[in-house]
Amino acid sequence: MRCWLGTWDTAVEAARPYDAAAWRFGRPRRDLNFLEIPTRADAEMLAAAPRLLSAAERRRHERALQQLSAAEEDEGMMAEWRSLHPEDVEHENAFWAEKKAARKAAREAKRQRKAFSDEQHRRLEAGLPTIDSDDDRWFDTFETEDEDTSNSGSDWD
Question: Whose CB among 15, 104, 121, 132 lies 3.0–4.6 Å from 33's, allowing a Cys bridge?
Fold first, then answer.
């Protein structure tokens, strides 16, 4: 989410509202400019209001504040829901664990088919006997080389 913070004259004046926004969005402390500020309330108190020179800037600032407020309210409601309905959290975690396990099993099966196919091609090139065309695995020998059987880039891992 992008959030317009305003316009300031100096980098220090701009860094204060950035820190306040970072606190609001739950960013880690290492992302802050002023590590000595202990709380979100302190960061917001030290942040100067942006220079709003035009009506358009004021409207944009108001809209950004409304969006930020709505996002915070949504996060608060979700946290409350999770605390009141832990069974939903368990069901969701179980769902994603099952999806991950199914994806992992599918990739493993694909790796095994690929290894079998490679072995059949090596045997064929070496003049050794291979499986008959009646074997169900015969079609796996025609699997293309561009199919990805690695774990890299997976959203499930």
Answer: 15
SS3 labels along the chain: CCCCCCCCCCHHHHHHHHHHHHHHCCCCHHHCCCCCCCCHHHHHHHCCCCCCCCHHHHHHHHHHHHHHHHHHHHHHHHHHHHHHCHHHHHHHHHHHHHHHHHHHHHHHHHHHHHHHHHHHHHHHHCCCCCCCCCCHHHHHHHCCCCCCCCCCCCCCC
pTM: 0.44
Nearest to 50 by CA among 41, 42, 62: 62
Q: Is the dihedral of CA 4, 5, 8, 13 positive or negative?
A: negative
